[in-house]
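Quality-control log, excerpt.
Job 1 of 2 completed; input and output follow.
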Amino acid sequence: MSGASSSTWRNWAGNVTARPVREVSPASAAEVAAVVRRAAGDGLKVKAVGTGHSFTTTAATDGVLIRPDLLTGIREIDRTAMTVTVEAGTPLKRLNAVLAREGLSLTNMGDIMEQTVAGATATGTHGTGRDSASIAAQITALELVTADGSLLTCSAKENPEVFAAARIGLGALGIVTAITFAVEPEFLLTAREEPMTFDRVTGEFDELFAENEHFEFYWFPHTGNCNTKRNNRSAGPAAPAGRVSGWVEDELLSNGVFQVACSLGRAVPATIPAIARISSRALSARTYTDIPYKVFTSPRRVRFVEMEYALAREDVVDVLREVRMLVDRSGLRVSFPVEVRTAPADDIALSTASGRDTAYIAVHMYKGTPYQAYFTAVERIMTAHGGRPHWGKVHTRDAEYFAEAYPRFGEFTALRDRLDPERRFANAYLRRVLGD
């Protein structure tokens, strides 16, 4: 096992820090179990951390911090069952690359792939999909080290009550050491990106959702402009984005110029509406066809802080219009687009899409810009509509709220009582969102 040093840990956005007593990098499930048993003997809490892409303190600890660096790799590809089993610390980008070499793919994924598989699934990371759900919903089995150092294998057939909850477990039920995902033969997606007015997108949202396998859009605050993206399976041939045009769209405009615009907006907030009008017209329509992860994901180099709420899908247009009215009337200056995505209902206890067809509204602020006033006002709108916050993004909700928002909340907390009665995996965030 590598490491026992301690230093200050920071998340990707820089809004969360922690100073654990010690950090360790176990290389196997057996070593993870030994870490948990030793922590228990020392009276310390234990948390596993991924790449720090959560904006909440879900992975922070002043006890023992488990880093994922050595718990990586592909254990098995089963072409009969059409599954892949990976170590929990494996980055999604590595998993995607391996699957592509094998002619395989996940069915759906989020728009970044820097996270570890365990970190992404534990907090309910998702993309957008009419019929295909979050990354966690594609899990068919997982391996979990519990508070007493036991190793549980969980699936629909083995420890099914744990499987029902642990796919999105918030790190509260144990340390996930391996995950098995369903995969399918690699396919092609045609992406169609197109500017569209706010009024058209919201007026035609139901049709755009129904007609496309994966639909999402971004609204630029202070404007009536949106950028839409429709991803649908294609018979081919592959026609990737051109090297130059792809660089212009994904790097120069979406990252380089946007970084400069955000920096200017942070320094001189009065310029933000004018910058937004220019930014919203900078991206042009384009169509390209490629393998899934090259269409679903894109580079995100401009750092930000984010809040996202899941709503009943039928409510999303009305709620987004309320958010627009808020921005227009408030004097707030918002340089980041508002993102809207969808997911079908799933059967995971604490999934934001648990039991209902869902749409998501995500709001962002550039790193270093005060975000509390904007997020607080938006959150007030979201909670009035029964919204469920993303577990890894900024929010102020607590266990009392979640007990109402999630019909199966009690099922999850009862399982936690059984698996971790002494709260070996607890921290301040879990005390707030799950209670004690």
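Job 2 of 2 completed; input and output follow.
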Amino acid sequence: MPPAIPTEDVDEVEEAPHPRLLVGVLAFCGCVVAVMQTLVVPLLPHVPALTGSTPAAASWLVTVTLLTGAVCTPVLGRVGDMYGKRRVLVAALGVLVLGSVLCAISSHIGVLIAGRALQGAAIAVVPLGISIMRDELPPARVLSSVALMSSTLGIGAAIGLPVAAMVVEHYDWHTMFWASAALGVLDVLLVLRVVPESPLRTRGRFDALGAVGLSGALVCLLLATTQGGEWGWGSGRIVGLFVAAVVIGLVWGYYELRVPSPMVDLRISARPAVLFTNIAALLVGFAFYANSLATAQMVQEPKSTGYGLGASIVVGGLCLLPGGLSMVALSPVSARISAKHGPKVTLALASAVLVAGYVVRFYTSHSLWLIILGATVVSSGTALAYSALPSLVMRGVPVSETAAANGLNTLMRSVGQAFCSAVVAAVLANLTFRAGGHTAPTLHAYLVVFLIAGGAALAALAVTLCLPGRSAAPTAGNVGGRGPKVLAQEGA
């Protein structure tokens, strides 16, 4: 991969703002885009009646966000590395605003799906923010700041669910989309005011064919995964999509190994330090999402099931709130562990905490407070893991590819969540019984979900132990102790 080059003269290099202000703005942006991932979950049961659509069409409000997020995250990360991270960050936030406004002004299911697709594309803000932090912050602050930025994916998702539930229960449902648009506009203004544009760029031309190939493979894979339960896992459409994903992926990989400036540098991605980190990200994403999916639904099951608590949508969402707060508190703890012992140790500890959390979940499924405790333990493990993953990625890739590499790692978390959604839906749909005149999942179904998620966390621990030994924690560049801005100024 060609090296990064400065594109501005020394006099034109912007002075970085106060580190805390920069980190605060970027973390706020990350939380806002993460909220979009769970924003409509409390609304889904009501969408068919509100829009005159079907439950299958309503499910696309979640599916399309996952698809566009998966496609845009690595692509926009690469574009940011090449053409300016702040520029792409502002564009992604602008797309979020546009999508939110579309959802706010319409009750047509087609318009809502289009708006949700635009909202999903903004998840690329997280890897872009990580890359900006690596470029702009003093080396001593990079680790803790990146840990917080990465954790916003979990923090926003955990906080967004109860907030959206309260809006759905007490206000017109369009209100939450107007609020999303307002937050997006605020994000844009803050970024333009606070975040400087890095002078660091990656040489070469944008790999458009590589972007199309990667997008095609991801869409086929995730569409098959998310729609398998609806269309039938053995149906021609699902089998065809899986086959297409494999074929497109193989052709794409062959092409990427031969293009001078690839969309994804597969040689770097194949390094054990990067490969095992991305596999661990997929497994952690799976384990994290199972907690979110199972908790809110489990406490809302009617008491006639024998285990359900008959809680409201709001209570179901609030069960995840302590976990979101724990993620805020633990991101600096994770950074300190990584600084002292290395991010590999942090990720191993995180995986062990996830396993412990699902052990708690398995044995405490009848008491609301014990359910909240188990969910919070799982969230705590996720916080440690999400905080350590970018550090592991950054120590294995050149500074010029930070956004693209973290975009790929974020993508792997999304793929893990997609597989988790399919597995949880299949388990809860197939292990059912009649209770109180309606069909509901059995308690055994939820316990199976916890066992599978705990197994994924245990696999993440095994993969983490295969990572190369401890190396220096990443600084703002890992190049002779000098950050990218210093290198840019010297190059200029």
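Post-run check on job 2. The radius of gyration is 22 Å.
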